[in-house]
Amino acid sequence: MIKLFTNSEQIITCNTQGRNYKRGSELKNLDVINNHFIVVENGTIKDILPNSSLNKFVTTEKINLKDKIILPGLIDCHTHTAFAGSRANEFKDRISGKSYEDIAKAGGGIITTVNAVRNSSIEKLVEIMKPRIREYIMQGVTTLEIKSGYGLDFENEIKLLHAIKIVNEIFPIDIVSTFLGAHTFPPEFKLNRSGYIDIIVDKMIPHIAKNKLADFCDGFCELTAFNADEIDKIFFTASNAGLKLKLHTEQFNNIGGLDVALKYNATSVDHLEVLQNNDLSKFKELETVAVLLPGVSLFLDYQFAPAQKLIGHNAIVALATDYNPGSSNILNLHLIMSLAALKMKMKVEEIINAVTINAAKALNRERLVGSIEIGKKADFAVFDANEYSEIIYNVGRNLLSHTIKNGEVIFRKD
Amino acid sequence: MIKLFTNSEQIITCNTQGRNYKRGSELKNLDVINNHFIVVENGTIKDILPNSSLNKFVTTEKINLKDKIILPGLIDCHTHTAFAGSRANEFKDRISGKSYEDIAKAGGGIITTVNAVRNSSIEKLVEIMKPRIREYIMQGVTTLEIKSGYGLDFENEIKLLHAIKIVNEIFPIDIVSTFLGAHTFPPEFKLNRSGYIDIIVDKMIPHIAKNKLADFCDGFCELTAFNADEIDKIFFTASNAGLKLKLHTEQFNNIGGLDVALKYNATSVDHLEVLQNNDLSKFKELETVAVLLPGVSLFLDYQFAPAQKLIGHNAIVALATDYNPGSSNILNLHLIMSLAALKMKMKVEEIINAVTINAAKALNRERLVGSIEIGKKADFAVFDANEYSEIIYNVGRNLLSHTIKNGEVIFRKD
Prior knowledge:
Two copies of one chain form a homodimer.
Chain A (H helix, E strand, L loop, with lengths): L1 E5 L3 E3 L19 E2 L2 E6 L2 E7 L10 E4 L4 E4 L1 E3 L11 H8 L4 H6 L4 H9 L3 H17 L2 E7 L6 H17 L3 E9 L10 H18 L5 E4 L8 H13 L3 E6 L7 H7 L4 E4 L17 E4 L1 H7 L6 H6 L4 E3 L13 H12 L3 H7 L2 H6 L17 E4 L5 H5 L6 E6 L2 E5 L2
Helix pairs in contact in A: 4-5, 6-7, 7-8
């Protein structure tokens, strides 16, 4: 089945001529095409042709995107969407002056959500996630990563991964699943850290790998969570089991997480708010993506990751919401894009590449999605805007017009 | 016609026992009512009764708000919604390091918008405003202030005020009109400041007052705009003509604006990002509202107004978007509420009072709207939330369920 997406004002391709990511100064290029239409066959981009050849397709189905801006479908490559409960009370405590780390040390924080998840059935978790995923779709998100990490025991981590699998089947967008058993230590293992790591290594990872319950294994390398040696053990096992790797690291402290992640060729290192200057050069030729999360910095009123320095050191930079109830309760990828401009001084073009092709790279999906190129999935985020910078300049406003996944219009405004 | 609004989880009244504003520590009180329903007659709140008396109203029309949170209709008391054109290019310049003041000095900034407005017909201005006002309504805004200030000559200022009058007639919400001829000097009077002030004083203000084209006269007291003596002249005339007063002041510099505003008993002083500590005590018993605009601070990456200090000094504090294309392109009052929590450390309760009863006070409408009290207009913002802090804690997400104006449901989600 052939379909044409016609009449748009601009097509922002994010084309990389086959390399499928952008590093350093390449992030400034968007590869914008005017006066062309997109030919889609069976959900895949077959061609991008000049409007002059439109007359060859007289009887073909046309989706008229007059005056609109077509971007590759947006990708949120770091989220904790699979949570239950609310942490509004903790939010109020933080406004009154308590720090995120203090709350975690006092037994609040992630553990509050763990208790809510453990008390939720798999059906309940799916129901909780549904409106959130609808909201992502209304923003033009066509690929979404979701982590476990609020179960923290075998049964509850597996439950979360199954719930994520179910929403992936229910919704037309691609949901990428990440196992985050190493999010923090569960209360019952506070005094027996190695006991919990044994469960992750001996029981959870083999089961998850065998049953293909996750694409990635992730961890949180931080003083209040796992140290570098503990992450090393987990990554050794996960890597051997065939899982790709990600790591939450350099958020509050530098305790060796970055080097462990790089030792295992992690697909991405995420956070990096306190990344040291002398670590910047490590990103120079690295294929590991630096995933930056400005929503956390806004939400915790904390420093922002050094986006411009990373780009200056030739890193592959991506952006994500880190949507979660404690440190970034921001289910809004457009707002994250605006924050990257306003607070990290990323250029509009850099930001768009960071939530498309580089976010695809952070999910190991860069050969399938993330740019408008022949052979890739026909995933588009279509906006009502005169030009692409309007999407970022209109802070807190959703200019999305259509979300298109595998060539199907899965959301249309009004 | 009697109607009942029933079954809500909470009614946040923002009741002030008739005083109609909250200052200092009073901002912490919301006056929440549970297990009650609201009786509305002919668009006005007639009673708030316990659920046990619901059986007296068997045949009365009921709007079922089960599990929802009812707030007074939200009020955005400082906006420049009546603008044409885009300043996305200037936004890009700012990301690259140019300051807002540098852009203004180089002839960009407000003047860019003035040119676009002068080139727009009144019909075009109305068309441009329509989707913006719809978006406000979808956020639960039932009273909206809009300023002129992008015309900067007699004909174009009048044109803007007429366009604002027309949208007020088209839409069911209340739109309050403010004359801001003293926004900046038009290019043709750059070298003849007193010439422009003469036009404001001799021509614009008398015409506007006579034809009731605006409720307020506003100005911008700043190094790049009007000095305190110039504002004094304008306020003298406006005040005598019967217009209420507002002033943009203490945004970048302290040049005497605050004292001029207080001399004329201005209804509000807006911005206050650089308010001096020794000016704080002036707010102690003042009925002038301090309108804070955290969106500007985010958008310009600039310091935030001292909200906690003002509240500590017993001020009447309100919050608004300052929606405008140059310094706060943020058409999202909920996001402003979240920013007030995250960046100004305002408590959730203080924020809700600041966009309801105190915002009404900033528009001189506090006897009509701003709280859920017998005799006031039945204006409600109804949210899908377990409790009111969720509205602010869910950053960048719109939890609004119904907007009710004069007892009519004017917007309903899905």
